[in-house]
Amino acid sequence: GAGLAEMTQLGVPVPAGFTITTDACRAYMAERDVPAGLEAEIDEHLAALERRTGKRFGDPEDPLLVSVRSGAAVSMPGMMDTILNLGLNDVAVDGLTRTTGNPRFASDSYRRLIQMYGEVVDGIEGQRFEQALTDLKAKRGVAHDTDLSANDLDELVETFKQMYGGRFPQDPRDQLRRAVRAVFDSWDNPRAQVYRRAHGIADDLGTAVNVVQMVFGNKGDTSGTGVCFTRDPSTGEQGLYGEFLVNAQGEDVVAGIRTPEPLQAMQQRLPEAFQQLLETMRRLEEHYRDMQDIEFTVEEGSLYLLQTRAAKRTAAAGLKAAVEMTDEGLISREEAVARIDPSQLDQLLHPMLDPGATYDVAATGLNASPGAASGKIVFDADTAAERGEREDVILVRWETTPDDIHGMIAAKGILTVHGGMTSHAAVVARGMGKPCVAGCEALSLDLNARTARIGETTLKEGDVLTIDGGTGRVIVGAVELVPPQINEDFQTVLEWADDIRRLNVRANADTPDDAKRAREFGAQGIGLCRTEHMFFGEDRLPVVQEMIMARDEAGRRAALERLLPMQQSDFEGIFEAMAGLPVTIRLLDPPLHEFLPPLEQAPDEMRERIKQLQESNPMLGTRGCRLGLQYPEIYEMQVRAIVRAAAAVRERAGEPPLVEIMHPLVGFAEELRRLRELTVAVASEENDVEYLCGTMIELPRACIRADEIAEHADFFSFGTNDLTQTALGFSRDDAEGKFLTYYLEEGVLERNPFETLDESGVGDLMRIAVERGRAVKDLKLGICGEHGGEPKSVAFCHELGLDYVSCSPFRVPLARLAAAQAALSERGAAYVAAGG
């Protein structure tokens, strides 16, 4: 509606009409009825429309016909409903025939109204109308609806009426009243709800209703309808992009009823309207300073624009258009950075399904890690590691554990039955840049038979599956993939973003390869290196298990002595990859039982120790700093390995690494005081290496008592995965795919708190920690949970005044862009506050 009004002011040819605002829709949703006074206002504006057009609504001889179309504040293409040709009835269709002298046009318009009104207002299944049309074309031996005569269409109208019980509603004003209600109702149809959830659009915005004079593209060969873009929405290239249909109404282009012609074909058929369209496209792009998606109709040679909006585009197209528009002087660099959707950049960093491929979706899970992969399914990590060396495999598990890491590394993608967006599978896959679909509960496994079942399809090991981690789709068989599209435009926009942002962006990286990749993506250091991942290597795990099985401290220290050079080697590789940049290393965090096999698979000599270590709720049990305090020799070995590695790299490179040693799960100041004492004592025994000693803030108590903890810390890093769990009392693996899905669908929560930071709860705890911690000293503050790469959460971290965010390597470009957008948003708010 706003677009139509603005185009009218610009002098662009737009049919007359009026807009019923989203306020009315919100009132309707609240009251479940049309708000008082609305119908009288509609009658008033309808009268004004009649005066402007010189036609009368409901006139039996020359009726004013209108379209009734939705129009949300945020573009949601195709999600809500539209009705065309409203105002026709059995008498008016005869009048329209006499007025236009075109009986086929009148009958065609009436059959379209009956079909659209039936689907949208009366809930008649659309397929019934389509089948009747198909049957009539077959009976007449014609291929297209345009080949049907006026008499044929009159027969179709009678067939359609039977679906209403013999009589279509005849009162035009009643048609309009019911149509407005139906468009309001379409705001809450299932596809619109799914679209809003997928795109983070609030459920309470509502939709406007646009009532607009009909213009007719179905009046014959000098009429038509089409859709065009001012630039290619797939690539962003300048040129002529769109489709056109002669003798058609708008829905024909998108419905696939007839094959549209390229927009260029309009030049030969309707040259004057074509030239006017080109000029209008240019004017609209210059006015809106953005790529436009335009719908138009030509009625007997006259061009009318029905809609313009910012075009939906691929990430590659968005980047190219932004860069070229900046070069053309249409927009500034700041505007270019502000208009790129950070979450879309995921498309450029992972293989994707070929947009031109056809396939059937067998099941859908959570879109846990973006990208797409095809491969032969395997059901355990050992098989994945073995077969993954020579062919593409998809690792399919009930859920993954740290023991599966070698199989996950070898697999092209991961599919799990259980688990959520921050499950082990999801977090590790994102860190490795691998596609992952988690929580696919339509999938069932029979590990004894080595089979999987999706619906009626049974798959055996070695059968091919394709997963799309960006959408959560699971497809039986292979689908063509297209490679990542990192290009010059991508680099250019990120460089502009780097000039704007205040927040530093680091990466969560556990290996030298991860660190190198992160640096390639522009990471300014490592915000989280999880040392436990180093313990699962084939040469390390037996030594770790020996340490856990030791009967006394001497036995543990003997095993740790053998682990020390292995850890040191890993740290050296990471420090070298991040030369000159800070590296935060988290000491051992998970409970010890994770390094041992399940009880039923363990050898006899291990079973007693496993039973001793078993806990009812291990994630709130003996892990993190509690482990370090009970078994200080473990943390001593790790600190020694860190300091020795830093000294060795300094000797080789001549530049000391910026080392930050982080103690996890601290809730009490006394815990960190003792562990800092341990850290300082061990480090002083080694080479003179500068380092910081801090903690991960991931418990509500740590936030509330941040001033006490800060006395013993050089930095805080918010671990928002566990902070969200402990603040909300949600187990992330149990919540996602279970009650959390219900909460999101029913509107109990607007967003998944494990994807987007819960600002009012978890965020408030962070705010307390920042204020109380910095009241004690000038702490370095960062975030290293999964939220560190999510745009809304990055904006919140900017607002809190954190120094950096840290995320998986493949999300670093997203975070760089989001951090710049947060800085621009702050500038804009300051400008408005100053009266600008």
- Percent strand: 15-25%
Q: Give Rg in angstroms.
A: 32 Å
Q: Give me the side-by-side strand order of the main sheet.
A: 11-21-20-13-14-15-16-12
Helix content: 40-55%
Rounded mean pLDDT score: 90
Tally of separate helices: 34
- Sheet of most strands: 8 strands, mixed
Name the structural class: alpha/beta
Low-pLDDT parts are 831-836
Please report the total strand number as a whole number. 30
Distance between the termini: 27 Å
Q: Name the overall outline.
A: elongated
Word description of this protein:
With 836 residues, the chain is of the alpha/beta class. It is built from 34 helices and 30 strands. Helix content is 45%, strand content 18%. Strands 11-21-20-13-14-15-16-12 form an 8-stranded mixed sheet. It has an 8-stranded parallel barrel with strand order 23-24-25-26-27-28-29-30, surrounded by 6 helices. The chain has a 5-stranded antiparallel sheet with strand order 7-6-5-8-9. Residues 831-836 have low confidence and may be disordered.
Highlighted features:
836 residues, elongated, 45% helix, 8-stranded mixed sheet, alpha/beta, 30 strands, 8-stranded parallel β-barrel
